[in-house]
């Protein structure tokens, strides 16, 4: 019997009832703008910022309109200027180089390793070759890598690190939360990430000057004293005439939806790890398929799953993707010559004018990605593994 997978790869959990009630209360109040609060009312956005800061152990937090916006404010707040080079991962998603390009800076890419983390040797070379002062580290698909070693390299070179934690909310390296290693951590609350407000972003830092700049940039006007996870108003005095208002605030409606999800994050992370483990176990030892190493220091939050098809031709990968799709299993291929859906590769971002990166090309050539929404049961994950395993075995026989 040919097993077929029928669950949806894009179906998320519903918003918790508490979030629906809180959203209703915001709607009934008519006060949706973050600075529109009744006397003595902190407002949902300021409370979200306070609660998220506490969750990751940051001094300051700012909620904004999207993850991409958070990265943009982070880049500007650390001082990136038009024409500057910013280093980032060659394996990432389009909003990452896009945030660099949006401020007139130039992305320069750093190779990815077979474990899907930034290549630290190439990072060192690229710092020396480009003179970049900022690394936008994309923790793509939740693969974290040796953060202590990365910070040693960047600190020694005087390079600031902005962490793109769109795939690592709730994750850690050696016990220290992702987003708490560099100068700024940026998170997304877009539907396909870890907490869901449709669109939204969060930015955390311990640096008061940096955070004052970010808050002004996000469109605070002179209302920053309404924040609960912001530096003292005196810190803003230095910069309040310097920062352009690049409007991208979060509103109370989204914050109301998000706040009740924060206490659920740890259980959600455990849920993803359980699903990942079933899939990993089901694919272990599968001839022709390489699993991605997860180091013991990595407290990972696998809301997606990757594997490698080493040495496969493009035609063979395409046949596998088609055979799995016919059985209801949506695989995304990062090696495709043209961008498809949300997958694209560094050489598709032609505005960036990038030399070829053979190491990264070799890794992306066989890299397969699938989403792992929490609406999949453990049985669903076991079925996914059986189908992929069977189709890989079939492809190996055909080859
Ligand atoms: C989603 C995503 C972003 C941007 O987040 P948005 O909220 O969609 O703007 C940034 N980096 C990565 C790796 C992402 O997947």
Tell me what the structure shows.
The chain is of the alpha/beta class. The protein has helices spanning 17-29, 44-56, 67-77, 95-102, 120-130, 147-157, 208-217, 233-237, 252-258, 265-283, 314-326, 358-364, 378-398; strands spanning 60-64, 85-89, 106-110, 134-138, 160-164, 172-173, 176-177, 184-188, 201-205, 290-291, 298-299, 304-308, 332-333, 367-371. The strands form three sheets. The chain has a seven-stranded mixed beta sheet with strand order 1-9-8-5-4-2-3, with helices on both faces. Strand 2 (85-89), helix 4 and strand 3 form a beta-alpha-beta unit. Helix 3 (67-77) crosses helix 4 (95-102), helix 3 (67-77) crosses helix 7 (208-217) and helix 11 (314-326) crosses helix 13 (378-398). The model has no long low-confidence stretch (mean pLDDT 97). The site of pyridoxal-5'-phosphate has 15 residues, from helix 3 and helix 4.
Distance between the termini: 23 Å
Shape category: globular
Measured by DSSP, the beta-strand proportion falls in: 5-15%
Q: Which strand order spans the largest sheet, edge to edge or round the barrel?
A: 1-9-8-5-4-2-3
- The averaged pLDDT comes out at 97
Oligomer: single chain
What structural class do helix, strand and pairing data support? alpha/beta
Unreliable stretches (pLDDT < 50, length at least 5) are: none
């Amino acid at each position: 019997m040919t097993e077929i997978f029928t669950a949806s790869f894009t179906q998320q959990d519903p918003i918790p009832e508490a979030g629906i009630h809180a959203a209703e209360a915001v709607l009934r109040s008519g006060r949706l703008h973050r600075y529109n609060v009744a006397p003595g009312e902190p407002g949902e956005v300021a409370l979200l910022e306070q609660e998220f800061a506490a969750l990751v152990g940051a001094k300051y937090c700012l909620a904004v309109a999207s993850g991409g916006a958070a990265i943009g404010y982070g880049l500007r707040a650390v001082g990136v200027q038009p024409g500057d080079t910013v280093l980032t991962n060659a394996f990432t998603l389009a909003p990452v180089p896009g945030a660099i390009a949006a401020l007139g800076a130039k992305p320069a890419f750093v190779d990815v390793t077979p474990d899907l983390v930034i290549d630290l040797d190439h990072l060192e070379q690229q710092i020396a070759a480009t003179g970049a002062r900022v690394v936008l580290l994309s923790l793509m698909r939740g693969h974290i890598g040796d953060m202590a070693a990365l910070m040693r390299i960047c600190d020694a070179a005087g390079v600031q690190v902005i962490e793109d934690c769109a795939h690592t909310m709730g994750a850690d390296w050696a016990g220290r939360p992702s987003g708490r290693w560099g100068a700024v951590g940026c998170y997304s609350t877009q539907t396909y990430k870890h907490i869901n407000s449709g669109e939204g972003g969060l930015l955390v830092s311990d640096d008061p000057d940096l955070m004052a700049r970010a808050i002004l940039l996000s469109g605070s006007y002179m209302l920053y004293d309404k924040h609960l996870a912001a530096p003292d108003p005196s810190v803003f005095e230095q910069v309040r005439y310097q920062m352009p208002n690049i409007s991208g605030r979060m509103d109370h409606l989204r914050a109301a939806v998000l706040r009740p999800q924060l206490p659920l994050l740890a259980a959600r992370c455990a849920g993803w790890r359980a699903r990942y483990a079933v899939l990993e176990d089901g694919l272990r030892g599968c001839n022709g398929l390489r699993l991605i190493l997860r180091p013991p220091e990595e407290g990972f939050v696998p809301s997606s799953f990757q594997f490698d098809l080493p040495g496969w031709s493009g035609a063979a990968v395409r046949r596998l993707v088609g055979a799995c799709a016919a059985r209801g299993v949506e695989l995304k291929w990062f090696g495709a010559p043209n961008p498809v859906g949300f997958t694209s590769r560094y050489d598709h971002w032609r505005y960036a004018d990038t030399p070829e990166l053979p190491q990264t090309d070799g890794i992306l050539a066989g890299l397969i990605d699938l989403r792992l929404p929490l609406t999949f049961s453990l049985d669903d994950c076991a079925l996914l593994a059986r189908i992929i395993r069977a189709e890989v075995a079939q492809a190996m026989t055909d080859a």
